[in-house]
Amino acid sequence: MHHIAVVVGVIAAIAGNVSLIGYGLATIGPGIGIGIMVGKTVEGQARQPEMAGRLQTTMILGIAFTDVLALIGFVLAFILPSG
Amino acid sequence: MVAALTAVLAAQPGFEPPNANEVFQWPCIVHFSLGGLNLCINRVVLLEFLATAVVAAIFIVAFRRPRIVPRGTQNALESLYDFVGRDIIESVIGRKGIMWAPYVTILFVFAFVLSLLEVVPGLQFPVSSRMAVPAMLAFASWLVYNYAGIRQKGLFGYLRSIAFPPGVPAFAYIIMTPIELATALVIRPFTLAIRLFANFFAGHLLLVVVFVGTAYLVANPITIGFGIVAVIASVLLVGLEVFIALVQAYVFSLLTAVYITLSVSEEH
Q1: The domain A16-79: what is its CATH number?
Q2: Residue to test with chain A: of B25, B87, B183, B248, most A Cβ within 10 A
Q3: Which of A68, B12, B48, B175 has the fewest C-beta atoms lying within 10 Å of its C-beta?
């Protein structure tokens, strides 16, 4: 019981915009996803250089679908009320 | 030594990063009302008019008197049109999609110019960092890809193809149909607009913070060493923003082509 009170006290004492922590969390998933995607594309381009152009188009498409999650997090960090 | 440095730094006024609201809000220049709507022309709208005029002028100058053997501006824009037609349209939609190449080309150029205003000296505000502008571009693309689907399959056939994708067991439609409808009609244009908006909102804020911070560092004799590094970094960031403008314009037109092909394809 005492520990819960301490944790609640610590959370209540955090000053500044908590939405920024949410933005930080929102970047983790897209960061890992884009890393895997680019790495796999480079691997594919190294194995089959003649496919490099089409792989790159698909990679940019995948990045565009993935990074919108981080961007929504960024926008929410500004839209949501701070505190 | 460290204590003296800390004392000197503490005596300086602190660095205040610019606030997002004051960076992106512009006062009205012309105020008028149209049918009960309060409209306002501010700096952002003027810059958008400028971008429209520039894009129109480029295309009119290039193709006013087209020649068989293109030269100058016509040559540059024809190679751009070739790039869009080959790399975006043909690789995504196929040869039959070439009728959408003019729209996608102009979308590409317009989105690029709107974002490029961020690094034009004296203007330095990306119009696409105000939500209404990417929202209208995404709405135009929404109209185009829905029109393409309706033109291909008819209104009823198009709605059936986006609500009931084939190859799914019947009971799954309870979950699939709302998700597919929301994806095709709401989420696609929403993410299209958010992507362009958030990239330039973030990019402009980044440039403003870095420039103000650089000025702060250079003005202070203690931190001028960091300031020189920051000057170099801010110049490189301008180049990065040009690159981002190019990539985002490419992604916007590429996704428009993808949505067109998702609308017109027979097997989902």
Answers
A1: 1.20.20.10
A2: B87
A3: B175
